[in-house]
């Protein structure tokens, strides 16, 4: 523990549409490529795992699995090289705190949706462009909410609208704070 004593416990993220931390690049909701790829960017290392059967021992926080069988087709280093080659084009930007809006955060929006839409499991409510994309690609969606303050012509949600039309998923306007869209996963009964 002593070796981490100078490590800040503040939450630092690129984007924070949930309005949780002022230490972010933006509070805007935008699509991350990995949501469309239906995976994490780094192909040989999975998402973190907390599982006694895979790579974790007592006291471990999380583990990861290395997929050796995909080494020959992995693009991780190519991706990193491409991104890092663009660093020379970046201008220096002063780090400034993004102020938090009072009275709401991502979880309060999720709870409101659950209450007003009679969704029993809050884990079925997936706010944000990336999560909504995943719902439409990988799950059985019930409905997609679109922020009442954005135009349906907004280029950031065009793929969402196309997927909703293709899958016959209804859309509805909603106050989503910084989120542009929110996917709701269908409740599947045990009988189905």
List keywords for this structure.
alpha/beta; 5 helices; 13% strand; 192 residues; 24% helix; 6 strands; two-stranded parallel sheet
Question: What would you say this structure looks like, in words?
Answer:
The chain is an alpha/beta fold. The chain has helices at 33-37, 76-85, 106-117, 129-138, 158-167, and strands spanning 13-15, 24-26, 125-127, 141-147, 171-174, 181-185. The protein has a four-stranded mixed β-sheet with strand order 3-6-4-5, with helices on both faces. A two-stranded parallel ribbon has the order 1-2. α4 (129-138) runs parallel beside α5. The chain is globular, with a radius of gyration of 19 Å.
Identify low-pLDDT runs.
41-45
| Strand line-up across the major sheet | 3-6-4-5
N-to-C series of helices and strands: EEHHHEHEHEE
- Portion of residues within helices: 10-25%
Based on CA atoms alone, the radius of gyration comes out at 19 Å
Helical region count? Answer: 5
What average pLDDT do the residues reach?
79
Structural class by helix and strand composition = alpha/beta
Please describe the biggest sheet, giving its number of strands, its sense, and whether it closes into a barrel.
Answer: 4 strands, mixed
How many strand units? Answer: 6
Shape: globular
Distance between the terminal alpha carbons, to the nearest Å?
A: 49 Å
Strand content: 5-15%
């Amino acid at each position: 523990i002593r070796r981490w004593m100078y490590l800040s416990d503040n939450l630092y993220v690129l984007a924070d549409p949930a309005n949780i931390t002022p230490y972010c690049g933006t509070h805007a909701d935008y699509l991350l490529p990995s949501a469309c790829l239906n995976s994490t960017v780094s192909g040989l290392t999975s998402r973190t795992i907390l599982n006694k059967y895979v790579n974790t021992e007592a006291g471990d926080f999380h583990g990861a699995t290395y997929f050796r069988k995909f080494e020959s087709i992995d693009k991780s280093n190519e991706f990193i090289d491409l991104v890092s080659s663009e660093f020379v084009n970046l201008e220096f930007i002063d780090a400034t705190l993004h102020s938090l809006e009072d009275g709401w955060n991502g979880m309060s929006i999720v709870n409101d949706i659950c209450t007003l839409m009679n969704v029993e499991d809050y884990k079925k409510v997936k706010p944000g462009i990336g999560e909504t994309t995943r719902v439409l690609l990988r799950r059985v969606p019930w409905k997609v909410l679109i922020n009442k303050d954005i135009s349906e012509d907004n280029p950031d949600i065009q793929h969402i609208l196309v997927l909703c039309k293709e899958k016959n998923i209804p859309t509805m306007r909603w106050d989503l704070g910084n989120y542009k869209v929110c996917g709701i996963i269908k409740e599947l009964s045990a009988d189905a």
